[in-house]
Amino acid sequence: MSEPLLSIKGVSAFYGNIAALKGIDVEVMPGEIVTIIGANGAGKSTLMMTICGDPQAREGNIIFEGRDITHLPTYEIMRMKIAQSPEGRRIFPRMTVFENLQMGAATAEGGDMKADLARVYSLFPILEKRSNQRGGTLSGGEQQMLAIGRALMSRPRLLLLDEPSLGLAPLIVRQIFSAIRDLNQREKLTIFLVEQNAFHALKLAHRGYVMVNGRIAMQGTGSELLERPEVRSAYLEGGR
Fold first, then answer.
1. What angle do CA 126, 128, 132 make, to 5 degrees?
2. Is the pTM of this model over 0.85?
3. Alpha helices in 73-124 (DSSP H)
4. What is the arithmetic mean of pLDDT over 122-148?
5. DSSP summary character for residue 234
6. Do 64 and 16 have their domain in common?
7. Residue 239 has what pLDDT?
8. Does residue 162 sit in the same domain as residue 152?
9. Phi and psi dihedrals of 153, rounded to 5?
């Protein structure tokens, strides 16, 4: 059996004296889509940020490709073929779509800019049409596509997606999740997904974890978690 690409072991993280993560254990195997679901404030986005080094874990270890990255600065972690599409998109609003994508390529060693652009444009054709448009003038869905595209420009081995469906219309949500599925199935890209839309996330994921109050409360395959009555009642029937 292969080793995990990402292994999070006993990780706790704090904001001041407040524990946001409490002994988290999560594994992501190469080629998987793994999702974390949970209510707002459960600690999902904090986990993503902790992987990226801000905040740094106070306890436990984060291992990527066999290397302990727990206490590395964020800029070193981002050079290790990890890319994040953060919550709230955080594109550069005054830059054009093309310039945003150029920024994503800044850490890609030996990259082929033309080929990488073609890859992003084939995934999200609207971005090619909007290439000379300022990022801040795009719709919310287009900005989310740009945030994912910018992350892909660094040629990551692990793509971190933080709430990619947040605030988007259902049609756009389906397009975003279809693109995530394509990246995983066609390119075998490993994806770690934090998502409030539990139904879409669990349908897409090979495996999932449920986070409650900074702890992992449940885990299983995506289909197993979709069938769990406590998941259905909390996140699918009234909590979606």
1. 110
2. yes
3. 74-78, 97-104, 113-123
4. 94
5. I
6. yes
7. 40
8. no
9. -65, -20
Question: Residue written as tokens 């090619």?
Answer: 128
Element (H, E) at 208: strand 207-212
- Residue with structure tokens 């590395």? 72
Q: In the structure encoding, which two tokens stand for residue 230, read together?
A: 């406590």
| Number of independent structural domains in the chain | 2
Cα(238)–Cα(53) distance, rounded to whole angstroms? 34
Does residue 37 sit in the same domain as residue 77?
A: yes
Q: How far is CA 28 from the centre of its chain?
A: 12
Using CA atoms, how far apart are residues 165 and 129, in angstroms rounded to an integer?
22
Mean pLDDT of the region 139-155: 93
Other CB atoms within 10 A of residue 235 CB? 23
Residue 213: domain span: 1-81+157-168+178-240
Identify the H or E element spanning 180.
helix 170-187
At 7, list the tokens.
């292994």
* Residue 87 pLDDT greater than 80, yes or no: no
Residue 24 belongs to a domain with what CATH number?
3.40.50.300
Indicate the SS3 state at residue 201: helix
Judgement on whether residues 3 and 108 belong to the same structural domain of the protein:
no
Two tokens at 159? 């793509």
Residue 173 falls within a domain, yes or no?
Answer: no
